[in-house]
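Supplementary notes for students who missed Thursday's class. We covered one full example, reproduced here. Read the sequence, then the structure, then the short commentary at the end.
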Amino acid sequence: MKGLISTFVFLLIGLQLWAQQGESIIIYTITNQQVEPASRILEHPKIIDSVKATAVKDYPLLFFQAETKILLDTIEAATVETSEKLAKLYPFYVKAGIGSVVMPLGEIYYTSDRSRNIHYGAHVKHLSSFGDIRDRSKTLYAPAQYDRTAANAYFRHNERNGQFKLDANYVNNGFHYYGIPDSSISADSIAQRFHLMKGAAEYVWLRGDSARLNLSFQADYQHFLTLPTDSTKVWRSKEDNFAFKTRGWYNYKNEHFYADLGVRYNGYKRGILDSVYTIGDTGFVVNNTIIDFKPGVWTQALSDRLKVELGVTITTDISEIGADFFVYPNAEFKYAMFNNIFIPYIGLRGGLKQNTLQGLTQANPFIRTNIALRNEHNPYDIYGGFKGSLSKTLSFNVGVHFLHIENKAFFVTDTLGIYDNYLTVTYDTLNQTTFEGSMTYQAGEKLKIDVMGRYNLYQLYHNAYAWNLPVLQFTARGAYNLYDKFYAQIDANVETGRKALVGSDALNAQLVEGQYYVDLGAIVDVNLGLEYRYTPRVSLFLQANNLAAQRYNRWYSYPVQPIQVMGGITARF
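Structure (token representation):
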């Protein structure tokens, strides 16, 4: 402290002396000066170039050890399934039975074993009846025995890019025109026999599913011959029908383009033995050729909810009297709503149907075989409705149809005959409105039920009623499978409102608009089938037809047999 004071005093004096120019001042003083002792620094200088990291604290882990328990238990030994993945196929299937009105039944089927490329088979079926038929008043009718024999053979060859098919069929159907309430009629005088031989060949050329043109070619031929055995057994009706159709289709994105080109030919002849007369009404020849061209496209939009088909059918009808040209619409619209639960639809169709003798006799075998053939011209069929599913097991469909058909064929009684036991064909223009609804219930493979109802309204140009067509129809079918051991099938058909055109002397005939008709009454037909599978290869069956025992008239003066029961056995080997 003393040193500091002394230093300060000397500084003040020095400043003052410096301030006096030209003067020298000398000051003498006596002070006590003390010097502190010196000490030596022992450390050498160095550069600090790193920073020491802070030490990390280490916390010990907590460790809990639980006691392990081991329990030993026995398990069931595993089994290995040694059966084949696919059930064994048996090439032969035989069905044989006998009915309550002496109705023998026999069927035999043969099919090839499993093959990737080739599949073929054949079957023969026979059914005949030797029973009599009575009407509701128990009057015995003319002999009504019949026999039906059919044979079929087929061949399939599958390739990587195509498929080839062959089919051959033969049908021999013998029956009687039994619609006469008189059992004394000779069976030979009302006997008839139909022979039908059919063949079909088809080749499908598959080049790809998308952006590729695919083609199919199909050819069909059938020969139909009638062989009556009455006093005019030398007369024959013969028909040869040939059809060829080719189809091409092309898929691109959401569009499906297609085009069909087809030719249909029908040659119908009526004559004695192998000759055909063309003068008067002793015989005739009718040839008809139809050429069809049908282009169109299917498309989808709105996430595949909307589906639309647009197309047209161009048809040429060629006969001896000239050629007619027709254009038919072909359109349909469908829209799926609520995840396919509700699907409304509307469509417009049309086409030309080639009527043939074989086709008409298949619908009604009791017609005369010397009839006039006219093609059925359907300018339009407008339909609409909605379908969908209420659940996974229940689906439905409700719709309406508006049809206009020219040359619609109706079966009527041939009043020129002696006994009115023959029917013939008359043609008229028909306007038809049909309301229909159906519902299907299916619970897996165990139970399935179908119900359908239809209400028809008819308007004709020249006839009072649509002969033999029902006003109200109801159909129900059901199938039940119990433990793959017992099978049951039932179907019911109800038709009302049918009327038949008859002669003025017919029983209970009524007159309307100059035409005599009779009510044919209701059809109530219920059939039940039962099967018990004794083993997977052997089963027993029982079939009961017409459970309501109704002797209804399917055609005028043609009552059917009442309840029929047939039983038999089936076997695979």
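Commentary. Residues 277-281 have pLDDT under 50 and may be disordered. Residues 312 and 392 are 36 Å apart (CA to CA). If anything here is unclear, bring it to office hours.
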